[in-house]
Amino acid sequence: DTAVSQTPKYLVTQMGNDKSIKCEQNLGHDTMYWYKQDSKKFLKIMFSYNNKELIINETVPNRFSPKSPDKAHLNLHINSLELGDSAVYFCASSRGLAGTYEQYFGPGTRLTVT
Amino acid sequence: DQQVKQNSPSLSVQEGRISILNCDYTNSMFDYFLWYKKYPAEGPTFLISISSIKDKNEDGRFTVFLNKSAKHLSLHIVPSQPGDSAVYFCAARSSGSARQLTFGSGTQLTVLP
User: Fold this and answer.
1) Phi/psi at B51 (nearest 5 deg)?
2) How many CA atoms lie within 13 A of B73 on its CB side?
3) Is A54 on the interface with B (CB under 8 A)?
4) Which of the residues A32, A93, B14, B91 has the least number of beta carbons within 10 Å of its own beta carbon?
């Protein structure tokens, strides 16, 4: 009964490919997020959705497109993958807006682009 | 220009002693601070938080101190236990409507038995 789950856990792919990472939460939360943990280990917010609406869209390449089919899911689609996209991507959810409510993180997806 | 900095990438402490993890920030608009703990192959989990209107918050063995004038916060763990070995992330919330979190780069704490 994992609260926030991500698939796949590991993803190895070649440059130029298109890939998706899926995220699901069973906590009944209204807000979901995607974070990128780069090589320097910083966790950086990429996107945030509240009730299926985009509320945070940081400066990320438009090759990254989040999709929220319903409140429990926030998927991340990446087009034309580049070497610099290699990182660990974390999905998270919270009952309300970040900081006001605790965020629950998924286990992460390690993406390696070769 | 990282707005939240954890300058010590690693810290080793003997079991039973105090662990002190430090975090500095530059943005005066941060109004809420959080600590997250992360084990390998898992996502971060919330540990403790503090509002900018307070200077201390305690929860069991964990205490967070905030020095607003120095833009510095610290997490104290007393007594440290081997199970506390993990990466600790400091995070700060911006006071705007989006309420997004800015994370530091983490400190690997190792508690030696």
Assistant:
1) -85, 155
2) 32
3) no
4) B14
Cα(A99)–Cα(A92) distance, integer angstroms: 12
Q: Which of A4, A7, A23, A41 to probe by mutation at the B interface, max B CB count within 10 Å?
A: A41
Closest CA to A74 of A97, A57, A91: A91
Sort out which chain B residues have CB atoms less than 8 A from A43's CB and list them: 44, 89, 91, 103
- On whether any CB of chain A is under 8 Å from the CB of B113, the answer is no
Strand ranges in chain A using DSSP code E only, listed in sequence order: 4-7, 10-13, 19-25, 31-37, 43-50, 53-57, 64-70, 73-78, 87-94, 103-105, 109-113
Q: Indicate the average pLDDT of chain A.
A: 90
The side-by-side arrangement of strands in the sheet containing A73-78 is A4-7, A19-25, A73-78, A64-70
- Per residue in B26-61, pLDDT tens? 998 898 999 999 999 899 999 999 999 999 999 999
Separation of alpha carbons B89 and A91, rounded Å: 16
